[in-house]
Amino acid sequence: ANHLPLLDIAAYVNGRPRVFSLRDFLLLVSEGMRIMRRFERPFALGRIAISNLEELRETRSVTEISLAFRQAVDTILDGMHDCDFVGTDGTAAILIGFPETSAAQAEIALARLRTKVAEAVPLSFAIETSADEGENILDFLVRKENELADE
Q1: Using CA atoms in the order 109, 55, 6, 124, what is the torsion angle rounded to 10 degrees?
Q2: Which CATH number fits domain 19-146: 3.40.50.620, 3.30.70.3270, 3.40.50.300, 3.30.70.270?
Q3: CA-based nearest residue to 21, from 78, 89, 79, 81
Q4: Can you list the alpha helix ranges (DSSP code H) found in the chain?
Q5: What whole-number distance in Å separates Cα of residue 59 and Cα of residue 65?
Q6: What pLDDT is recorded for position 124?
Q7: Fewer beta carbons below 10 Å: N end or C end of the chain?
Q8: How does pLDDT run across 24-62, given as a tens digit for each residue?
Q9: What is the pTM of this model?
Q10: What's the confidence (pLDDT) of residue 3?
Q11: What would the mean pLDDT of 65-81 be, rounded to a whole number?
């Protein structure tokens, strides 16, 4: 059987610049939201997730998937701006805080990152992206903080 060990983005991104634990990431997002409201500045929260790992496990080797996964994560991190910051959500999703960026601008940046991954990575990952601002981020913060409290 071709079982893939649990791929955890945190293992690939820890120690990289601007990469934070989920708890610290949530604190940074909270602060970004506070600044956004106080100074009427944009702030967006983006999410990039690989959604077809299960399907790939059926046709590809563990090594192929692991190497491609690492390459995808590296491509995403290398393609970000210096002011962006990163956290992880689950095992196959990267969260990105986009200071001074609207959700529409973040969607463009995420689409660019998705294209870079598609060009750089030999496997065809199904990459889903989303970007939110305002109340949607607050809902996300509450949900994630509750999840952390339950651990």
Answers
A1: -40
A2: 3.30.70.270
A3: 89
A4: 9-13, 22-39, 53-59, 62-78, 103-120, 135-150
A5: 10
A6: 87
A7: N
A8: 899 999 999 999 899 999 999 999 988 888 898 899 988
A9: 0.84
A10: 41
A11: 86
